[in-house]
Design a protein that fits this description.
By secondary structure, the protein is α/β, with parallel strands linked by helices. The protein folds into 2 domains: 270 residues, 3-Layer(aba) Sandwich (Aminopeptidase); 112 residues, Alpha-Beta Plaits. It has 10 helices and 16 strands. Strands 1-2-4-3-5-16-6-15 form an 8-stranded mixed beta sheet, with helices on both faces. α3 packs across α10 and α5 packs antiparallel against α7. The longest helix is centred in the N-terminal third of the chain and has 21 residues. It is elongated and about 80 Å long.
Length: 389
């Protein structure tokens, strides 16, 4: 059977799987029901797999010798209450597939089904990575450390993500820098508590924290070239126990996003200097702690070129949008792209007639389910193109 015919045959089952996953969302490292559903499908389709703690590596072994291609989907959900009006609404209170990982998982299952039915003609192997914890601890790095890219050795990895910014039937793609690196920031400011009527008896960390916060923002607007990119966000400030008490400490939390490794280091050095020196000026001890999170996602030019060409043949040139600029999103597929020449692209799921227009990470987020068949066929055709190249 042709690829399109196999996709059409399995599409109704894929939609049912997606709706089950959407009704039963699970947070990172807790994806047990999700794994059971994935394994149920793999068993039914006679696809070989290996279960990890909360992740699965499956393999389709082609009859002919060749390279091994990896396909990856993230499987975890978000701590968001669903407010979208759909018949398969989340039954796990306060948890929702608000980033489309249920769709990614379903597309990967669909690609696995099609490729398994074509294995006699495959020139090589295909590994399927059902990856946990993209939204939290970075499950991609853990899967790599556990050996998912070995035995047989994977040469390239492909991944995708739904986007409500683009209409169903279109994709966005870009070679080179695509998404940012991220670093989680904690700023601890230690003062000395006193009565609010006698502030001179204490050392006020709240006032100092305000000054520190003000000192950080000009690092972006005045210390970085307008042609470079970085975003610094402080989204949480906590300190004090009462309105008439000089607090003894304040804690601020934020995130730094950068596209360039050198800029990442420069920003960290400048932030530390601003925090420490401003703290000294206000008589407090101020410390910056940086927790390195995801690395930047950089698409390989050659592999991205193959995906772009294959996608244009399938969708038409007018439906393949080549992005000119990277964005400061983060995505732990970056760890696969750091190890191997890889490509990550975005697939449209927007449909205004179906009210599929809300942004990712929103309680009203919905997808046009037609993107499932499109994504499945794309991943299959891209895989075949790489195996045959």
């Amino acid at each position: 059977m042709l690829v399109k015919e196999l996709v059409k045959k399995i599409e109704p089952e894929l939609i049912d799987v997606r709706r089950y996953l959407h009704k039963n969302p699970e947070l990172g490292n807790e994806e047990h029901l999700t794994m059971e559903k994935i394994m149920e499908c793999l068993k039914a389709w006679n696809i070989e797999y290996e279960k990890r703690k909360t992740g699965i590596v499956a393999i389709i072994r082609g009859k002919q010798q060749g390279k091994t291609i990896g396909l990856r989907a993230d499987i975890d959900a978000l701590p968001i209450k669903e407010t979208a009006d759909v018949p398969f609404k989340s039954e796990n209170e306060g948890v929702m597939h608000a980033c489309g990982h249920d769709v990614h998982t379903t597309i990967l299952l669909g690609a696995g089904y099609v490729l398994q039915n074509m294995k006699d003609d495959l020139k090589g192997n295909v590994k399927l990575f059902f990856q946990p914890a993209e939204e939290t601890t970075g499950g991609a790095e853990r899967m790599i450390l556990e050996g998912c890219l070995e035995n047989p050795q994977v040469e390239h990895v492909l991944g995708l993500h739904v986007t409500p910014d683009v209409e169903t039937g279109k994709i966005e793609i870009k070679a080179g820098k695509l998404f940012a690196a991220s670093d989680m920031l904690t700023i601890r400011v230690e003062g000395f508590s006193a009565h609010g009527a006698s502030p001179h008896d204490g050392i006020d960390p709240v006032v100092a924290s305000g000054a520190i916060l003000q000192s950080l923002q000009p690092l972006i607007s005045r210390k970085i070239s307008p042609f470079d990119s970085a975003v610094l966000t402080v989204g949480s400030i906590h300190g004090g126990t009462g309105g008439n008490i000089i607090a003894d400490s304040v804690e601020m939390r934020g995130i730094l996003r950068t596209l360039d490794p050198d800029m990442r280091k420069v920003m960290q050095d400048r932030m530390e200097a601003a925090v420490v020196k401003t703290g000294e000026a206000y008589g407090v001890k101020a410390v910056l702690e940086v927790e390195h999170s995801y690395c930047p996602l950089i698409n390989d030019a050659e592999i991205t070129g193959v995906v772009e060409m294959t996608s244009k043949k399938m969708l038409g040139e007018e439906n393949v949008i080549v992005k000119k600029h990277p964005t400061l999103k983060v995505e732990d597929f970056a760890y696969f792209a750091e190890k191997l020449p890889s490509c990550f692209y975005e697939i449209g799921c927007r449909n205004e007639a179906l009210e599929c227009t809300e942004p990712l990470h929103n309680g009203k987020f919905k997808v046009d389910e037609e993107c499932i068949a499109i994504g499945t066929e794309l991943q299959v055709r891209n895989t075949l193109a790489l195996l045959n190249s």
